Amino acid sequence: MNDQPRRRRPQHSSRPGSGPRKPYRSPSPDPVRRLAWDALRAVNERDAYANLVLPALLREAEKKGPFDRRDAALATELVYGTLRRRGTYDAVIAACVDRPLREVDPPVLDVLSLGAHQLLGTRIPTHAAVSATVELAREVVGDGRSKFVNAVLRKIAADDLDGWLSRVAPPYDEDAEDHLAVVHSHPRWVVSALWDALGGGRAGIEELLTADNERPQVTLVARPGRSTVDELADAVGEFAEPGQWSPYALRLADGGDPAALDAVREGRAGVQDEGSQLVALALAAAPLDGPDRRWLDACAGPGGKAALLAALAAGRGAAVVASEKLPHRARLVARTLAGNPGPYQVVTADGTRPAWREGAFDRVLVDVPCSGLGALRRRPESRWRRRPQDVAAFGPLQRDLLRSALRAVRVGGVVGYATCSPHPAETRVVVDDVLRGRSGTPAAAAELIDVRPLMPGVPDLGDGPDVQLWPHRHGTDAMYLALLRRTA
């Protein structure tokens, strides 16, 4: 037995010039990842929309400082990337835990999803992604559960995204829809609905699903008579490029900030997807016999199409009525239209119970409430909130609004039926039912107008007479437009 006293560990290194060993201190909380986690919690717990909650959190962080443009860019990528790839990351995480995902506390699952995105969807080094996410877990869910987070992330880090997909996605030949759902992070029913709407084989649907997961460019509209594309391009500088299809569109590359532009702050320009611009432009370009003095936007909130229509109408001496059912959205419309040089009126009214007489308008736009399956690039959380029954639930309202719009337009006038969804049950089926007088009070008699000549230069518009735009073909949201002329 050794009775010598146990040698004490030296308190400092024997290396020349080295001082006493400093006690361990955990890294400071990372404000970027904490902000991203706060945004995800708001989206997943309170059904907030990322495009609303994230800017508010970024403004608050910038006030507290230090929080620069690169921090904001990383936070944005973490939030939107995690939301877009949630389905894929859920499948990977599920393979790394010993319980069903529904039994993992939602705050912990949000931390794991953030970590998975850093490991599998970004170029952040593995050690940095793991350590920073574990520190976030300590801060927001406690030290005990941070150990669970650490163990799961180290399992995820053992392979790259392609390797994980080969393990967690079923083979395409065995279950094509489930394979696409896992690989491209869409609910299976959405994959099926989009595939039906698109038609064709595997290549087309994979291109569409891939486009849904890409970050869309911010697109500006120069409202005619109030600003120009050249003015916006000069103000934006190197971050600007012309729109592809609309003569009023300007696309911003990374780094362009719409809020910094005088024209946007003053309402002379706005942020508006090019597909939305094309819908308004096509309605305004449809040929009319007789007067062209009164236009109606029957579902105007939040006001982007109404503002473009009002600017176009002002150039022709026409007046616009913008109607919105919800008072807070009607206030947004009024704010967007403020300063328009031509006559306009904003009313709070239900488009199915109109506040105007029959045949009062020459042109009517009805951009109906819908599932939003055409805007999954911009609102990735929508794909996880919608259910198949939601599509059917919108149907009666969509038909009522179209019937009401046809009664609001005069004989010879034109109605534009638009929706940000490619689902056939929200597009052609609705139009066909109303034209044929199915399911409800018969509408005024009408005929379809070919939309394609009214979108000059835009390719791949199908067989007509209606038009479906696509993210992978046109770089726009999946907007649908049918134009109908009232005949009696």
UniProtKB/TrEMBL annotation:
SUPFAM superfamilies associated with the record: NusB-like (SSF48013), S-adenosyl-L-methionine-dependent methyltransferases (SSF53335)
Protein's UniProt keywords contain tRNA processing: no
GO molecular function: RNA binding; RNA methyltransferase activity
Binding positions (S-adenosyl-L-methionine): C299, A300, G301, P302, G303, G304, K305, E324, D350, D367
Any Gene Ontology biological process: regulation of DNA-templated transcription
Residues the record marks as active site: C420
Pfam family, one: NusB
UniProtKB keywords: Methyltransferase, RNA-binding, S-adenosyl-L-methionine, Transferase
Domain SAM-dependent MTase RsmB/NOP-type, first and last residues per copy: 194-487
Homology family: Belongs to the class I-like SAM-binding methyltransferase superfamily. RsmB/NOP family.
PANTHER family, A to Z: NOP2 YEAST -RELATED NOL1/NOP2/FMU SUN DOMAIN-CONTAINING (PTHR22807), RIBOSOMAL RNA SMALL SUBUNIT METHYLTRANSFERASE B-RELATED (PTHR22807:SF53)
Function: May act as RNA methyltransferase.
Protein name: Transcription antitermination factor NusB
